[in-house]
Each structure stands twice: as structure tokens, then as C-alpha cells.
Amino acid sequence: MKRLLSRPLTKVQSLLIHSHSRRPASLWSDIFCYVLLPSIFFLSLGYAIEVSHVDLVIAESLYRYQGGPEFGGWTLRSSFLEEGILHKGMHHLVVVLALSLLAAFVISLKRQPWQEYRAPLLYLIVCFAVTTLIIAALKKFTHVNCPWDLVAFGGTQPFVPTFSALPTGVTPGRCFPGGHASGGYGWLGLYFVALVYWPRWRYLALAAVLVCGGLMDIGQQLRGAHFMSHGFWSLAISWWVSSLLYLLMLRRYRVRRA
């Protein structure tokens, strides 16, 4: 045991320990922990999802769960819970949240007591705006169809893997990445705001965002609007945006507060 305790820490171990200590880690430690490690995770899991075709397995299970073609296909597509609550309701909630943050930021420009909240408010607004803009742009330029568009699930288009070229004659889709899920995952910046101002609450903030985005994502899968990977890549993009903007916009406040 003494030998184990006396051994010098490896560089990776040191980076991980400093990233979770009260004292802010170095810039390179933050890049390693918040950008490089998550990127390895997202790219590795994304590759596994792509080559295993797990999207089709999950979609097939959900399609059969709803009765398949014998019962009209995606019977939950217009249901009260999936369509009314998880789709329209959550969308309206996200819009209200975004507008509320924007109003709070404007107030912080005019009222001195609100000034201390200006930086985190601006960071959250920029994170959400950049994330949703990137995903909206990708949806226009990617060819991926929704499950309900595919022949296997009652549609008219053949299945084409996400990162494969679109064959001649196939109508391009606009379903990748998942736009609705980004309405939840786009608030991952709350984790970094909590990291800077309320460190004890950072994991609760992260869990809340993941639950919110996950519910929005699952609701769309149940409706046949998206494959599982569509929400997964929305999550990845949201994390990359929030972590990079943290390094650019918010990290210096964590250093000052140390």
C-alpha cells in the first residue's frame, strides 16, 4: 500500500485530479478533460453506433411495439404525451427559457445589481444560439431521412447509413442531427456555469440537462421522427460548443474566483 501511495501520478491522473479540485486547473488540463476526453468518447461510440446499425434495431423495436404496419405504423406520432407534451410542450418551454435569459441579460446591462450575472447569461445565450444554428445548418446539408420516411417503417425511401453517400434517386432527408433534442442538450452550458459559480451543483445541472434532452430525444424516437444516433450527435455537438465556449468566455471567471 505504501508503494502504491508513494508512486508518482501519471500525467493523465494528474490532469483528472486537478480538473475536479477547487483550484482551477491549467488551460491544457481543461482542454484535456472537457474537450479531448469527451471527443474520444463521442467519436468512438458514434463509430460503434454507425457500424452496428443499432439505429435500425431500436427503431424496429419501437415500430413493432406500436403495432407495426398492421396498426398504421407510428401510432404514437400524434399522441398527447409524445406530440403534445414531449414535442410541442417542451419546445414552448425551451422558447420561454431562452427569451427569459435574453430578457435577464438585457436587464443586466442596465441594472447594477444584475451586472454579476451578465457573463454567465451571455455565455448561456451564445451556447444555445450557436448549438441550434449549427444543428439547423447540418440538417439542411445532410441527406439523412427520418425513420417514418423509410420503406421498412411505412415510408418510401431506402435506408442509407448516416455517413454514406446518397444513392441516385433517393430523396434527401433533413433529419440529422436531431433538432428537437438540441433544445434540451443546448443548455449543457449550465454545467460550466455551475462549475464556475456553484461547483457543488455542477453535476446536478448536468443531470438535469441530460434528462431534459433525453426526454425530448426519446419522445422523437417514439414518434418515428428520429433515430437514436440523431439525438446522440446533437448531444455531442452541444457538448463541444459549450466546452469550447467555456474556454473562450467563462473560464477566466473561474480563475479569478479561485
- In helices, the fraction of residues equals 55-70%
User: What global shape is seen?
Assistant: globular
Tell how many strands the DSSP assignment holds: 0
CATH architecture: Up-down Bundle
Question: What profile does the largest beta sheet have?
Answer: none
User: What is the radius of gyration?
Assistant: 21 Å
Describe this structure in words.
The chain has a single domain, classed as Vanadium-containing Chloroperoxidase, domain 1, CATH 1.20.144. It is built from ten helices and no strands. It has helices at residues 2-6, 11-19, 27-52, 54-65, 80-110, 118-141, 179-185, 189-197, 202-223, 228-257. It is globular.
Describe the secondary structure blueprint for this structure.
Layout: H1 2-6, H2 11-19, H3 27-52, H4 54-65, H5 80-110, H6 118-141, H7 179-185, H8 189-197, H9 202-223, H10 228-257
Quick take:
The protein is mainly alpha-helical.
Observed structural traits:
Vanadium-containing Chloroperoxidase, domain 1, single chain, disordered N terminus, mainly alpha, 258 residues
